[in-house]
Design a protein that fits this description.
Blueprint lengths: L5 H9 L5 H5 L17 H26 L1 H5 L25 E7 L5 E11 L13 E8 L10 H15 L6 E9 L12 H23 E2 L2 E2 L9 E8 L1 H12 L6 E9 L5 H8 L20 H11 L8 E7 L7 H13 L4 E6 L11 H18 L1
Parallel strand pairs: 3-4, 3-7, 7-8, 8-9, 9-10
Antiparallel strand pairs: 1-2, 2-4, 5-6
Helix pairs in contact: 5-11, 6-7, 7-9, 9-10
């Protein structure tokens, strides 16, 4: 080994030699960011699972209510044998009133069933052999949302018999034709029920009445009967529950044929609108159903219809009178809704009266004699006032 100079030895002492290994140890190697995983304790899992299930079911039911609202509101298949009922099954309970089935078509081609009965009231003048009455009255009945027409015939027949006894001593002869409309999808009518479609059905039934009256008053252009000239026949629109909304729809939106005149509306156990019924049936704030009204395709808004009816007849000499018949023990529609209808009628200038059938539930006002008597007396008074 060569001896180092004193200066070189001093440099080596001040600047030590660095090895390659020590240099590599100082290199900083970048690392990927680590993900943090959420870990729930077993106790917290159950509330999360059940809370998610509740929200999912809540959302699912809201969607089902919106999508299937027609099937919820209109139930033509309840009870299960409703579409196979026959008039003959109830004919012996109708007190001698003869009912028959007629057919008509809506403007969209839907085939509809009508259940019709004729009732002649009053005595013709002595020695008169005419078979044509002095006046004609038509009652168009719009049923509730379930069952079919035949089971309703005994109670409706009883009301007609009461009406006949009430008008029996009248000097005029009157033919009352009672027409029960079976909406599309109900009884033997075709199609599926929707509010839009049922509006067409009600208009078709009214047009059928107009054609029937035209045939009964003329033959080959010749006027029949004791009148020198035919005058418009009186029409009563009678609706029960959902049918009350259909009746007000018809009165508000459809023009009466020239040979018919709207006399009165009979609203049996009515409600103001479908939206109002959502609030009644689901009053809890945490339930979402009453907030779904913007998605309704069925409205049956009788409250609005009363205003339209008033505007429609404001220039007429006579506006229709309204009977609001409520069930004192109605388990579905509260009395506040019929009171709102009564107040609305007064507000828009329509003459109305409100009556309650004591002890009656929503669907049995006509089952009770008081309900049938109230309706028959109302119709009789209106006929007497206008003949």
């Amino acid at each position: 080994m060569l001896p180092l100079s004193r200066a070189a030895a001093a440099v080596l002492r001040t600047r030590p030699v660095q090895s390659r290994a020590s240099t590599l140890s100082r290199v900083v190697i970048p690392t990927l960011p680590c993900r943090r995983h959420l870990h729930l304790e077993g106790v917290a899992l159950a509330p999360v699972y059940f809370g998610g299930l509740f929200v999912a079911l809540w959302t699912w039911k809201c969607c089902m209510l919106v999508i299937f609202q027609n099937k919820i509101i209109y139930m033509p298949g309840m009870p299960p044998n409703a579409r196979w009922e026959k008039i003959e099954d109830y004919s012996n309970q109708c007190g001698g009133i003869k009912w028959r089935e007629e057919r008509t078509r809506a403007t969209d081609g839907t085939d509809l069933a009508l259940c019709v009965a004729d009732l002649d009231i009053g005595q013709p003048p002595n020695g008169s052999e005419t078979q044509n009455p002095d006046s004609s009255v038509y009652i168009l009945y719009c049923q509730g949302n379930a069952s079919s027409t035949p089971p309703r015939l005994p109670d409706l027949s009883s009301a007609l018999c009461m009406l006949k006894r009430r008008l029996h001593e009248d000097a005029h002869t009157t033919r009352i034709t009672f027409v029960c409309l079976s909406y599309r999808g109900y009884w033997t009518s075709r199609g599926r029920p929707t509010e839009r479609g049922i509006r067409l059905d009600a208009a078709a039934a009214l047009q059928w009445i107009s054609h029937l009256h035209e045939k009964s008053t003329t033959r080959d252009g010749t006027v029949l009967g004791s009148l020198d000239a035919p005058r418009p026949a009186q029409v009563f629109l009678w609706g029960q529950s959902v049918g009350a909304g259909i009746a007000t729809n018809l009165a508000a939106e459809h023009a009466m044929p020239s040979n018919l005149r709207l006399n009165s509306l009979i609203l049996e156990t009515p409600f103001t609108s479908i939206r109002a019924m959502l609030e009644v049936l689901y009053p809890q704030k945490w339930l979402p159903y009453k907030y779904l009204w913007p998605f309704l395709r069925n409205h049956l808004d009788s409250l609005t219809n009363l205003g339209l009816i008033s505007s429609k007849y404001k220039d007429s000499q006579t506006s229709p009178r309204i009977l609001i018949l409520e069930a004192a023990k109605d388990e579905l529609v509260p009395a506040t809704l019929s009171q709102r209808l009564h107040d609305r009628a007064a507000e828009v200038g329509l003459d109305s009266e409100r009556r309650a059938v004591s002890g009656a539930f929503h669907n049995d006002t006509m089952f009770r004699a008081e309900g049938r008597r109230t309706v028959s007396e109302f119709i009789a008074q209106r006929i007497e006032c206008t003949t």
